[in-house]
């Protein structure tokens, strides 16, 4: 195991991502943060807190379970995500921990489109490790980490560190 991001850099990266979100979105009242369950949700919550700290605006946060939209053996047709917020004409910022093949993001976008038609969907990921299988690119990235396909990237939010196994 190799620790590639430690606590201080982890926090700096989250703050930088949050500032980028604020800078690129003129009207923060149109944003809805959507954490991809499970590992994207704590990052989305932290971004929500930082937006409030920097701009004094409480951006809504939703959580999405993508298991009914997966294209692999983990697919579960019985799971449906329901948002409290109306997503029509809103800017959805999907948040996840690690971007790898792009399949989880595709599943999340499918689930969102089943709920309505947002004005735009943006993607914030803490780690972009490459190896895309779909044409998906993150708008906001904490850290780009070139990896081999057989390595495992663990984004440990509790300890605020990223480890490669």
What can be said about this structure in brief?
This protein has helices at 7-24, 40-55, 103-115, and strands at 2-5, 31-36, 61-64, 91-99, 120-128, 140-144, 153-156, 161-164.
Number of strands: 8
Please state roughly what percent of the residues sit in beta strands, choosing from under 5%, 5-15%, 15-25%, 25-35%, 35-45% or over 45%.
25-35%
* Strand/helix succession: EHEHEEHEEEE
Secondary structure: helix percent: 25-40%
Q: Numbering strands along the chain, what is their spatial order in the largest sheet?
A: 3-2-4-5-6
So what's the oligomer here?
A: single chain
Helix/strand-derived category reads alpha/beta
| Rg, Cα atoms, Å | 15 Å
Low-confidence stretches at least 5 residues in length (pLDDT < 50)?
Answer: none
Q: What is the count of helical runs?
A: 3
Query: Ends: how far apart?
Result: 5 Å
Largest sheet: 5 strands, parallel
Tell me, rounded to a whole number, the average pLDDT.
94
How would the global form be characterised? globular
Describe this structure in words.
The protein is α/β, with parallel strands linked by helices. Helices cover 28% and strands 27% of the residues. It is built from three helices and eight strands; from the N terminus they run E-H-E-H-E-E-H-E-E-E-E. The chain has helices at residues 7-24, 40-55, 103-115, and strands at 2-5, 31-36, 61-64, 91-99, 120-128, 140-144, 153-156, 161-164. Helix 1 packs across helix 2 (40-55). The longest helix has 18 residues, at 7-24. It is globular and about 45 Å long. It starts with a strand and ends with a strand.
């Amino acid at each position: 195991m190799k620790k590639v991001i430690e606590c201080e850099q982890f926090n700096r990266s989250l703050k930088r991502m949050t500032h980028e979100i604020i800078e690129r979105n003129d009207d923060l009242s149109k944003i809805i943060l959507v954490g991809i369950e499970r590992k994207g949700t704590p990052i989305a919550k932290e971004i929500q807190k930082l937006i409030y700290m920097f701009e004094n605006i409480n951006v809504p946060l939703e959580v999405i379970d993508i298991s009914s939209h997966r294209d692999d053996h983990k697919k579960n047709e019985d799971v449906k995500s329901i948002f409290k917020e109306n997503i029509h004409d809103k800017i959805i910022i999907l948040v996840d921990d690690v971007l790898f093949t792009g399949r989880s993001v595709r599943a999340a976008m499918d689930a969102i489109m089943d709920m309505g038609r947002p004005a735009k969907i943006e993607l914030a990921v803490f780690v972009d490790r490459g190896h895309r299988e779909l044409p998906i690119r993150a708008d906001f990235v904490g850290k780009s980490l070139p990896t081999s396909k057989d390595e495992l990237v663990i984004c440990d939010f509790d300890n605020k560190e990223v480890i490669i196994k």
